[in-house]
Amino acid sequence: MTLLHAADLRLSFGSRTIFDALTLTIEEGERVGLVGVNGSGKSSLMRILARASEPDRGEVQLRRGATVTYLPQEPAFPEGATVASELEVARAPLRAALDAHAALSARLESERDEAAHARLVADLAAVSERIEHLGGWDTSHEARRLLDRLGVKDWDRAVADLSGGTRKRVAIARALLTRPDLLLLDEPTNHLDADTVDWLEEELDAHRGALLLVTHDRYFLDDLVDRIVEITPGAGVTSFPGNYEAYLAQKLEAEELASVAQHKRERWIAQEVAWLRRGVEARRTKSKARIDRARRLMAERGFSAPKVAEIQVAAPPRLSQVVLEAHGLAKAFEGRTVLRGVDFTLQRGERVGIVGPNGVGKTTFLRVLLGELAPDAGEVVTGKRTKVAYYDQQRAKLDPEQTLYEAAGGSPPGKTGEDYIELSGRRVALRDYLDDLLFPPTVQRMQVKALSGGERNRLLLARLFLEGANVLVLDEPTNDLDLVTLNVLERLLLQFDGSVLLVTHDRYFLDKAATAILAFEGDGRAVRYPGNYETYRTLKEQAEAAARAEAQAAVRPERGARAAGAEPRGPSGSAAEPRARKPGKLSFKEQRELEGMEAAILDAEERKAALEAALGDPATYQKDGGAVAGMRAELEQVSGEVERLYARWQELEALRAGGP
């Protein structure tokens, strides 16, 4: 069944047409990925579908009663909002349904008329189904689970006081809690670390509604969507069944067929032009139809391969033996240790990916390496020939009030003459270089603040590669880039004759580009792994499995001694004094508790599910409506028990891992 239908949409800004005659249909439960080059209108289309803005022409129809939730790239919050208040907004539909269920239940207990009783039972069944659709009977456990997994701890904290990354996490939790029929997500993985991206992928896979997704994360697209819709600048959309990998194969085949057809068309036009030049024969009446056909064909727009941004790289100077080294780096902020004894060496030709949870110290480490922050301890050694170009994720080097041309290094307004840049010994006009970057002259006159996020990134990267650096330090360069430009960036890094330090959550990008991974694993520690991201994940899992096996082996002798009744004694024969806990070691009692925790949680979850199913079954109210209040109280108690068990499980796991 059709959930949403957008027909004949047109949008333009001034003389620039974003899209025209765009028609899109989304079916119930469908998973759609929206792709297109930066500036093609992906975010604008999202806003129109969410009714956050209006098109110049066309209409959007949504199935009656359907709900839509929109997560923009930069989420907005009302003034004075807190984490808790935003979650209450998200849960409002569920609370309304629960209140309606309670009211119907009360009426059902006192209703004696059979016909009215039957109507109430039917209404109760419909409300129960809506409660299940909105996430179930427990209104707080799901919200707490989402925020805990997203790393958001302070429920009462004002959203305005949070970092950009944490605000994005609150917005994600708010969107997931609404359980809409259609979820619109615009670059949801921005500002998330790779592990959280993995988790979000699982959450969206379990989402029962439809999904329209804009993301540069190719693994995300491959795993989640069953259709790709490509938006063409200034035109409409083309639909491709399957995931991103299937889309690439279909796109390549379509372009090859179109290229062959264009070659035949050009040969036919050449023949017709030669015939027309004969003159007399072409002017005969019986040839008028052929002349008209030839003119129509020549007037048509033929196939041309899509343009790709051509980012050029200025030749870097040769690196010395020492590139960048860090010895025993330490850094703390307000008593919180961010770096603790970090050693690192960047060698010639290496491309090192830096990963770890948000706030763990990745950007701090880069800033200390570059001399922007002084370490509390340790030193940084920079090679004599090392020349660094730094891409910061905040795009601080771009002035939003400048025109694109000025920001690229061109002349300020009022100055006449052409600006040139040097590229590998060639002198190239800046205007032409920007045109190759898919910034035509009309766009070059626009202010930076009018560009899309991806266009700003493309401009900043292009400027960065012109600096002639032999070490590139890139902090989240993939955010907002379209997939085509991502492929260009990958190719440039693979061909780059220098060294690269790369912070990104894009798993596919790290698999393609990285030769080593530096993982920040908490408590200020950083561990280096050889190979790409997939190799790092494998090696990390193996190391964690070995640590668990070692911890279990250490517990067995103690367990055997206690089973034999041997209680440790002190030197005087009295019970031994309690010793300080060793990191990563659980007591015998705690180990037994942890071993039984999974079964206890499963039992509590089963009791909770049984109570929810009973409360959602109209037959419960027909058999014994008086028992409903007791069932609700028991459900509340069991929900609290589930929450307590999960919290205790996390506490024991943290203790076993060596936490406090």
TrEMBL record:
**Which keywords does this chain's UniProt record carry?**
ATP-binding, Coiled coil, Nucleotide-binding
UniProt cross-references to CDD domains, sorted A to Z? ABCF_EF-3
Q: Which Gene3D superfamilies match?
A: P-loop containing nucleotide triphosphate hydrolases, Valyl-tRNA synthetase, C-terminal domain
Domain named ABC transporter: residues: 4-258, 324-555
State a single Gene Ontology molecular function.
Answer: ATP binding
Q: Where is this region: Disordered?
A: 548-588
Question: Which stretches does UniProt call biased (Low complexity)?
Answer: 562-576
| Keyword Metal-binding among UniProt keywords | no
The record's InterPro entries line, in alphabetical order, gives: AAA+_ATPase, ABC_tran_C, ABC_tran_Xtn, ABC_transporter-like_ATP-bd, ABC_transporter-like_CS, ABCF_ATPase, P-loop_NTPase, Val-tRNA_synth_C_sf
| The keyword Ligase is assigned to this record | no
- Where are the annotated coiled coils located? 594-648
Please give the name of this protein: ABC transporter ATP-binding protein
**Whose protein is this, by species?**
Anaeromyxobacter oryzae
